[in-house]
Design a protein that fits this description.
five-stranded antiparallel β-sheet; alpha+beta; 11 helices; 2 domains; Phosphorylase Kinase, domain 1; about 300 residues; Aminoglycoside 3'-phosphotransferase, Chain: A, domain 2; globular; about 45% helix
């Protein structure tokens, strides 16, 4: 699979269903589709309708992050293809084994996830000095840009309150800014179990934003653990224990600062979802069901802050 012809065969298998290789749809929502192609060495084909992006930066970054232990997938090939007068952005990626958990992780699983996320974080910090990051947006700037696009709602109210807080502004605008993985929710973290060993890997390393180092554990705790609690264990919100999670992170963390920055995930992604839903034909109840975990996460963090 080292030449373009082989990659084209793989892509044609997905687009034209020609059965050259067995396939399995892993994800299909909106304009994005992810398919596993069972070649001798399995690969993933990711297709995004309307995407004309160059994946050169993402390819370089994923190579840095994957390392020798395949912590993330890598992009082997990419192209833009026109079909039916529509552009499609296409990536062929290495296959990363494992499955997202369908339940809230126990203590052992939580420790493995936090420690491996820390490894990813250190690689992102290292990559910040090796790849061109001038075009990567800053987290705070994205929130500010989206605020005028959102009508009055609980998420916007929380965002307006957050961006006025002096300590938040001190933390988020620290001079040293690193690459931050902004979407560490449970479907993007894959786990494999071998006896007593749990192996953790990451997929869909996007969006990448810039922020202070402390933002990465804050996003991990808010997205994978708190936000996921409202999806995986909606009747047991007390499953979330921030003190335990902070103790698993290999470097010391200030709890008050972590809580403050934990708001960035449900507010930032919640604003984005609100903008996207305002442009859709979905009814009010459908929109509210999507936004509810974000609103509940914000409320839970505000309660912990006191």
């Amino acid at each position: 699979m080292e030449n373009k012809l082989e990659f084209e065969k793989i892509i044609n298998t997905v687009f034209h269903n020609d059965k050259t290789f067995p396939t399995k749809i892993l994800y299909e929502q909106g304009t994005t589709k992810v398919v596993q192609v069972k070649t001798p060495t399995p690969v993933i084909v990711r297709i995004a309708e309307g995407d004309r992006s160059s994946y050169e930066f993402q390819s370089t970054l994923l190579t840095e992050l994957a390392g020798q232990d395949a912590l993330t997938s890598q992009i082997l090939y990419w192209e833009t293809r026109e079909l039916g007068n529509k552009p499609y952005g296409i990536q062929v990626q290495t296959y990363v084994p494992g499955e997202p958990v369908d339940h809230y992780p126990d203590q052992k699983g939580a420790k493995a996830i936090v420690n491996t996320a820390y490894q990813l974080h250190k690689r992102l910090c290292s990559a910040s000095t090796k790849v061109e990051i001038t075009s990567i947006p800053k987290t705070h700037d994205l929130i500010i840009q989206m605020l005028p696009m959102v009508s009055s709602c609980p998420i916007k109210t929380a965002a307006e309150k957050l961006v006025k807080q002096h300590r938040y502004l001190e933390l988020i605008s620290q001079p040293e800014q690193h690459l931050i993985y902004g979407d560490l929710w449970y479907k993007n973290i894959l786990l494999e179990f071998y006896g007593n060993k749990t192996t953790v890997r990451f997929i869909d390393i996007d969006p990448i934003v810039l922020g202070p180092s402390i933002l990465q554990p804050a996003i991990l705790f808010a997205s994978y653990f708190l936000f996921s609690a409202f999806i995986l264990e909606p009747k047991e919100p007390d499953t979330f224990n921030l003190d335990d999670l902070i103790s698993y992170w290999p470097e010391p963390l200030n709890k008050k600062d972590i809580l403050l920055l934990m708001q960035v995930f449900p507010i930032g992604l919640g604003l984005l979802k609100t903008v996207q839903l305002s442009q859709s034909n979905m009814d009010f109840n459908g929109r509210q069901s999507i936004l509810e975990p974000f609103e509940k996460s914000i409320q839970a963090i505000e309660k912990m802050i006191g």
